[in-house]
Amino acid sequence: MSQYTGVALVTGAASGIGRATAIAFAQEGCTKISICDRNLLGLQETQTLISEISKDVDVLVIEVDMLEESQIDNMVKKTVERWGRVDYAVNAAGIIGNNAPSTQTTAAQFDLITNINYRGTWLSSRFEIAQMQTQTPLEWGNGKKRQKVRGSIVNIASQLGLVGRPDAPAYCASKAAVIAFTRGDSIDYAKDDIRVNCVCPGVTETPMTQGEPKFREALKPAIDIAPMKRMGTPEEIADACLFLCGSGAGFVCGHALVVDGGYIIN
Ligand SMILES: NC(=O)c1ccc[n+]([C@@H]2O[C@H](COP(=O)([O-])OP(=O)(O)OC[C@H]3O[C@@H](n4cnc5c(N)ncnc54)[C@H](O)[C@@H]3O)[C@@H](O)[C@H]2O)c1
User: Fold this and answer.
1) Could you list the residue ranges that cross the membrane (predicted)?
2) Is 194 part of any domain?
3) CA–CA distance from 138 to each of 57, 131, 141, 220 (Å)?
4) pTM of the full predicted structure?
5) Cα separation of 154 and 106, whole Å?
6) Ligand 1 atom 11, closest CA
7) Where in the sequence is the domain holding 250, given as residue range(s)?
8) Would you tell me which of 20, 58, 95, 102 could form a disulfide with 238, CB atoms 3.0–4.6 Å apart?
9) Confidence band for 216, pLDDT divided at 50, 70 and 90
C-alpha cells in the first residue's frame, strides 16, 4: 500500500519542480492531489500528465496568485472542501526575479521577489498549518515504528538561501527567509504532530533556468563548482520532497535538505 494515503497540495505545480512533485505523488500512489499555480494552462498540462499515470488520481486544479492572501486562504479551503484535509503540502511557487545587484534593483523588484518567494510561501504554510491543526492525525506503523502525523509541509528554498552568488541579493534573501521561517514553524508546531521542513535545490533544469542566454551563461560557474557538474532534474528535487513528506522522515523536523550535486560543500 502507498505510504501517501492522504491529501497532497502542491504550489507552483504548473511547471518545473512543483509539476514534477505533483506527478511524483501520483506515481507513488497518492490519489488526492491539489495542484495550485497562477498559470492555469500549465496546471491543465500537469493534470493531463497525471491522468496519463493513473485514472484513479483525483486532481483539483486551483488557480492562485501567491501575492493575494485571500486566494491562498481559498486554495487551502477548496482542498478541504473536496477531501476534508491536507496531509502533505509542498510550496514550490517562486520566481528568480531581476538578476541584478542591489544598486540596480528597484524597491518594486525587491518587493515582488520578497512577496512571492517569502511572503507567499509563508502564507501558504500558515494556512496549511492552521488546517492541519484541526485534523485528526494519520497513523501508521507498529511498535517502535508507530507514527502519528497531523501533516507534513515542505517549503522550497534554495542553495542560495545558504550561500551567495552574484546578481541575486533579493532572491538569496528571500530563500534564506524561507529556511528561517521553516525552522521557526517546525519548532512551534512539532507539539501538534506537524512536521515542517524545506528543500534547498541547486541549479535545476526547469523553465526558471532556461531563460535568457545571459542568465544561462551566468549559471555555468555554479554548475562547474558542484562536484557532480550538472544541473539537477526536477524529478530529483521531487524525490527529496516526497521523502520529507513520507514515513521515512518521521523524525526530521525543521531541516533544510540541500539537493545540489554538492555545490555548497565545494
Ligand atoms: N530551478 C532552479 O534551479 C531552482 C533552484 C533553487 C530553487 N528553486 C526554487 O524552486 C521553486 C520552483 O521553481 P522552478 O525551477 O520549478 O521554476 P518554474 O518557473 O518552472 O516554476 C515556478 C512556478 O511558480 C509559479 N509562480 C510564480 N509566481 C507565482 C505567483 N505569484 N502565484 C502563483 N504561482 C506562481 C509559476 O507560474 C511557475 O509555475 C521556486 O521556488 C524556485 O525559487 C529553483
Assistant:
1) none
2) yes
3) 20, 14, 11, 44
4) 0.98
5) 30
6) 92
7) 7-265
8) 20
9) confident
